[in-house]
Design goal:
Layout lengths: L1 H4 L10 H25 L7 H25 L7 H21 L2 E2 L21 E4 L3 E4 L2 E11 L2 E13 L1 E2 L4 E4 L2 E5 L3 E2 L4 H8 E3 L5 H6 L1 E2 L3 E10 L2 E3 L7 E3 L1 E4 L3 E10 L15 E5 L4 E4 L2 E10 L15 E13 L2 E7 L2 E5 L2 E3 L2 E4 L4 E9 L4 E8 L7 E10 L1 H31 L1
Parallel strand pairs: 7-11
Antiparallel strand pairs: 1-27, 2-27, 3-4, 4-5, 5-12, 5-13, 6-9, 7-8, 8-10, 13-14, 15-16, 16-27, 17-26, 18-19, 19-20, 20-21, 20-22, 22-23, 24-25, 25-26
Helix pairs in contact: 2-3, 3-4, 4-7
């Protein structure tokens, strides 16, 4: 706050009444601005230090702006120092508000993205299949295509506005494995929790007809096309590949997006078109993505004597069947199937059993089973014919970040003006 006070002080010639009056106006301005931001952006009590810093920055900017207006007026040669102070204060102000209230809208919606890489987070990274349209914050996004230009690989992502979803009385929806019936006609809010108490009845014992017509609750559908962002990855064999973001600039915020993972080279396959086997570990209820398919391990069971003949097993074999559920999409509709690979032990030897799921382009082999923690080690192959390109993106909205850029510009202009004014004074002193 010191830079908001010192401009008003003159050595042995500062009137206390004048200083207090000018500073009081800046304090009132800062208080109004800070209070408005606290309400609009819903600051919580533990964020008081941020609010205090916003108040100090707003006070410094307002005080120096008042000084330029009230004291310097048309003397532009003397604006340098206070204008640079205004710029510095706005830079701090913009940095604090944009980082404190940044909104990460790229939250993953299907499966556990951390199963692909431990660096991914379901709360900040979105897996997007090519051709799919998913909701991301207040937008719907579609990964349309990838293209190369020089040393850059670009990924074109189309953004659409969200049309509010309307529900009628009696509609049945599923939300977090529970069914609800609409009490009223209404438009969906951004979150189901906002509507649940007023507009929905929980169905603890739904009828067959209710369960049959239930649809997943959504708050909207893709609307009008808005814009396209093209984040890219710069290819660099010596220093390593580097993601380069693309940003949508608006008056009140910036939408920043960058690629966290993408396939940059075509995968290698064998003569039949199968990609190299991927080895992973599963426990019951674990799930992961294989291409565009969500793979979940539902159960493990031992095959009894009555089930062995139909699977070509011997009486002495010890066989465990793993029941996997495969979830995918076809023509916009969700489809599922089951895969049941075997783990066979015969005379203390493991008998390799490769299980192919026809029409899905996947095959499995269970390599080991730990009975202590019931953990499987499985090798999974994917066929190139069903391979779908996908990316992992992160998108963040930075509110009021233009204040930061404005502050940087004013600080640079003010510094230039101050240096120019000093050089002029030095020339005049030298001439005298």
């Amino acid at each position: 706050m010191a830079i908001g006070v010192t401009q008003w002080l003159k050595y042995k010639g500062t009137g206390a009444k004048k200083v207090v009056g000018n500073l009081l106006r800046a304090i009132i301005d800062a208080a109004i601005i800070t209070t408005a931001l606290a309400i609009v952006y819903d600051f919580e009590i533990q964020e008081f230090p941020r609010l205090a810093l916003l108040f100090a920055a707003a006070f410094a900017a307002s005080s120096n702006a008042h000084y330029i207006w009230a004291v310097l007026k048309g003397k532009m040669d003397t604006w340098g120092s206070p204008l640079a102070h205004v710029g510095f204060a706005l830079t701090i102000f913009g940095a604090v508000i944009s980082t404190a209230k940044q909104d990460i809208i790229s939250k993953n919606q299907i499966g556990d993205i951390a199963s692909l890489n431990e660096e991914f987070n379901n709360r900040s990274d979105l897996l997007l299949m090519q051709g799919d349209t998913l909701q991301m914050g207040q937008y719907y996004v579609n990964y349309r295509e990838r293209h190369e230009k020089g040393i850059h690989v670009f990924f074109s992502i189309d953004y659409f506005e969200t049309d509010q979803k309307s529900y009628n009385k009696g509609d049945v929806v599923a939300f977090e494995d529970m069914l609800f019936s609409a009490k009223t006609n209404h438009g969906a809010s951004e979150e189901f929790a906002y509507d649940m108490e007023v507009h929905w009845n929980y169905l603890p014992f739904p009828t067959k007809s209710q369960a049959a017509k239930a649809e997943l609750w959504i708050n909207g559908t893709p609307g009008e096309f808005l814009f396209t962002l093209d984040p890219s990855i710069q290819l660099n064999e010596r220093m390593g590949n580097s993601p380069e973001p693309d940003t949508r600039h608006d008056l009140t915020s910036d939408l920043y997006s960058h690629i966290k993972w993408a396939r940059l080279t075509p995968p290698e396959t064998d003569d039949e078109g199968w990609l190299g086997g991927r080895e992973t570990e599963f426990m019951v209820h674990d799930s992961m993505f294989i291409g565009s398919v969500l793979l979940s391990l539902d159960s493990l069971s031992v095959i009894g004597s009555e089930g062995r003949p139909e699977r070509g097993l011997l009486d002495k074999d010890l066989a465990i069947v793993a029941c996997f559920t495969l979830e995918g999409a076809e023509n916009g509709e969700s489809i599922t199937t089951q895969a049941t690979p075997l783990y066979i032990v015969r005379d203390n030897l493991i008998i390799p059993d490769i299980h192919e799921v026809e029409g899905w382009g996947l095959k499995f082999r269970i390599d080991s089973f730990n009975p202590t923690d019931e953990k499987l080690k499985v090798t999974i192959w994917e066929h190139k014919s069903v391979r779908t390109d996908f990316i992992v993106i992160q998108a963040i909205i930075f509110p009021l970040i233009n204040i930061l850029w404005l502050g940087c510009i004013l600080m640079a202009i003010g510094s230039f003006m101050a240096v120019r004014s000093r050089l002029r004074r030095n020339r005049l002193t030298t001439k005298d």
